[in-house]
Amino acid sequence: MESILLRCIIQLPPDFRLQDVLSFHKRDQLMAAERVEGYTLHKGLVWQGHAACLTINFHPLQAEAILAIDGSPADNMSTSLDQMVRRMLGLTQQIEEFEATYRHHPEAGPLIVQHPGLRVPLSATPFEALTWAIIGQQISLHAAIAVRRRLIQAAGMQHSSGLYCYPDAAGIEHTSEEQLRQAGLSQSKTRTLIELSRRNLENLLPLEEWTINLPVDEMREKLLLVPGIGPWTINYALLRGYGWLDGSLHGDVAVRRNLQTLLDHPEKISEKYARDWLEEFSPWRALIAAHLWAMKSLQA
């Protein structure tokens, strides 16, 4: 099979937290679509309709990204590769001002001291982030990882390297409802994924175009029209798909649990309490949530 290789070199900041990135991508220990070997990440994905494998070799202060594509895409789009990898590594996130502002905060300060330079690793595409958020609704992380793996395998696109590729909207559309249900998705989640894919393919939800200007209000409005997508799913997808750091993740169980630990609060933290507490940190509410996840190395 003809293979196309795209390459780019990306400079890394001195405080780059490599283990955060590697941990995020090795959540699935069976490594169906992602594989971490030492300081190298391999990830299967769909690139312009073709099976592809993204390899990122990490070196001190530098990352080398290589995209091996099975087949011949319409164009090489090396610039798009560079932009995607920068988003994935969290390098588009302006964390310096956040850390300078809250380093001495009585409650957030200790989090920053424990995790200096923390950036949020992103999914390769907004579509992957959205579908992952839907899969994870109201089930444990362990269960969500298993469903995600079966979904990827049900979509059936496999790169010549052996890695399965996380499906794009066309991949979900070509997967039957029965196959999605057999992967472990509930009927409502199955219908949400199908409807999300349809709207993306019809450009009613231009997920990739939104990465350019990030029109958050428009994104919220259009995503809320999809049955099964609510505020938590949108805020999580905005974080993991676009690197938007101001979504309030007060509905997240791990955020509330770790906030209770941080504040030494005698009772469970309610969603209202968490929402009110996070409000102070706008426009970095999602970044605070990421620091709370990191308290126990949680990778949501």
UniProtKB/TrEMBL annotation:
Question: Boundaries of each HhH-GPD domain copy?
Answer: 135-297
EC number(s) given by UniProt: 3.2.2.21
Please report the stretch or stretches of sequence annotated as the DNA-3-methyladenine glycosylase AlkA N-terminal domain.
9-125
- Would you tell me the protein name for this molecule? DNA-3-methyladenine glycosylase II
A Pfam match is AlkA_N
InterPro entries named among the record's database cross-references: AlkA_N, AlkA_N_sf, Alkylbase_DNA_Glycosylase/TA, DNA_glycosylase, HhH-GPD_domain, HhH_base_excis_C
Record-linked Gene3D superfamilies: DNA-3-methyladenine glycosylase AlkA, N-terminal domain, Helix-hairpin-Helix base-excision DNA repair enzymes (C-terminal), Hypothetical protein, domain 2
Where in this chain does the entry annotate a coiled-coil region?
Answer: none
Q: CDD domains, alphabetically? A: ENDO3c
Alphabetical UniProt keywords: DNA damage, DNA repair
Is Transmembrane helix among this UniProt entry's keywords? no
Write out the catalysed reaction. Hydrolysis of alkylated DNA, releasing 3-methyladenine, 3-methylguanine, 7-methylguanine and 7-methyladenine
